[in-house]
Design a protein that fits this description.
heterodimer, A: 113 residues, mainly beta, 7-stranded mixed beta sheet, B: 113 residues, 5-stranded antiparallel beta sheet, 11 strands, 0% helix, 52% strand
């Protein structure tokens, strides 16, 4: 089944404790990205990757890191999480240009206390 | 100029009624306008999309109306059903330039039975 998977689905952590949210897709998509969804603010792009070893900032990159060492994986790293990073995070992928149909993962709900 | 403004923020419609969600944009270079549907606990999924060379696109009960001169587009859900209860996001992008989707802030639709 073609899909985007994220782990973990739920995470509660404390301020400053480094964490990684994994994202993997099995559709051989070149383009992958991370979004955060907050009430009243919609979906905002954090980082994106056009292909392996090519990453760039989205609209809200502060406090986040990413890497793209393999085509299928695009982990999101929070080196020192803060409470304002409490949010619902989505990984997405697409074939070719970023404006084509985006396939979203199921989401990761992160709470930073 | 990169914003996509979506309204209303929430909408309650009776079963069988018509749901209408509106979006407006400023950047005339946008050339791709999709709508995404998100059910609780799930990631968004592409519902329907339109290019600016047509004024309307219909897929089943879902129709996009596009007004290029007014820089507005809307989603109409005919014969709304309780199963349509979800959050809807409009988006816009520049396909030729290969830019990422810019999402509206979302509309939460509740269809009462």
């Amino acid at each position: 089944e073609a899909q985007v998977t994220q782990n973990p689905r739920y995470l509660i952590t404390v301020t400053g404790k480094k964490l990684t949210v994994t994202c993997s897709q099995n559709m051989n998509h070149e383009y992958m990205s991370w979004y955060r969804q907050d009430p009243g603010l919609g979906l905002r792009q954090i980082y994106y990757s056009m292909n392996v070893e090519v990453t760039d900032k989205g609209d809200v990159p502060e406090g986040y890191k990413v890497s793209r060492k393999e085509k299928r994986n695009f982990p999101l790293i929070l080196e020192s999480p803060s409470p304002n990073q409490t949010s619902l995070y989505f990984c997405a992928s697409s074939f070719g240009v970023p404006s084509s149909e985006q396939y979203f993962g199921p989401g990761t709900r992160l709470t930073v206390t | 100029q990169q914003q996509v403004k979506q309204s209303p923020q929430s909408l309650i419609v009776q079963k069988g009624g018509i749901s209408i969600i509106n979006c407006a944009y400023e950047n005339t270079a946008f050339d791709y306008f999709p709508w995404y549907q998100q059910f609780p606990g799930k990631g968004p999924a592409l519902l329907i999309a339109i290019r600016p060379d047509v004024s309307e696109k219909k897929e089943g009960r879902f129709t996009i109306s596009f007004n290029k001169s007014a820089k507005q587009f809307s989603l109409h859900i005919m014969d709304s059903q309780p199963g349509d209860s979800a959050t809807y996001f409009c988006a816009a992008s520049m396909v030729q330039a290969g830019t990422a989707l810019i999402f509206g802030k979302g509309t939460t639709l509740s269809v009462s039975s």
